[in-house]
Amino acid sequence: MRQAEAALAGSPMSAWMFPSATDPAKPLNDAWLRDRVWRPRLEKASVRHVRVHDARHTYASLMLRRGVPIAYVSKQLGHSSIQVTVDLYGHFEPGADRHHVEGLATALETATQDREEPRATPHLDFSSTPTTPTAEEEVARP
């Protein structure tokens, strides 16, 4: 695509993926992109200011939470391998940590079954836990 654009413009292809708008031999200045492209578009869309990197991270996180295949998200982000995406965003896969929640539910069920009276909802009994005296109790102490 970049080669085609350069050919249509009748100029050599820039060595930079994002060349400067004024001099293709130089890279795009991040401040220029941020101040002249990114912020005006956020303002026009009435969106609060976020960094470009934050928008990228949000995109990836939301896609994975929706169940989009990690291979597709990896390709969209331009990662060198799916492993890079897994390392950065693997915790956003739906159900990936479900076993932790199920383990907690099992522990709560076991704790409630050991009680004399079954309860409709899990309940933890902290009545035998020693308490720290309040300031009034501390003053009243002999």
Give the tags.
mainly alpha, elongated, 53% helix, 7 helices, 2 domains, 142 residues, 0% strand
3D architecture notes:
The N and C termini lie far apart (85 Å). The protein has 2 domains: 2-92, no CATH class; 97-127. Helix content is 53%, strand content 0%. The protein has 142 residues and is mainly α. Helix 3 packs antiparallel against helix 4 (70-77) and helix 4 (70-77) crosses helix 5 (82-89). The protein has helices spanning 2-9, 30-44, 52-65, 70-77, 82-89, 98-113, 135-140.
Describe the structure in brief.
The chain is mainly α. It has helices at 2-9, 30-44, 52-65, 70-77, 82-89, 98-113, 135-140. The longest helix is centred in the C-terminal third of the chain and has 16 residues, at 98-113.
Order of helices and strands: HHHHHHH
Total count of domains: 2
Give the biggest beta sheet: none
Radius of gyration: 28 Å
Shape: elongated
Number of helical elements: 7
Give me the secondary-structure topology:
Blueprint (H helix, E strand, L loop, with lengths): L1 H8 L20 H15 L7 H14 L4 H8 L4 H8 L8 H16 L21 H6 L2
Helix pairs in contact: 3-4, 4-5
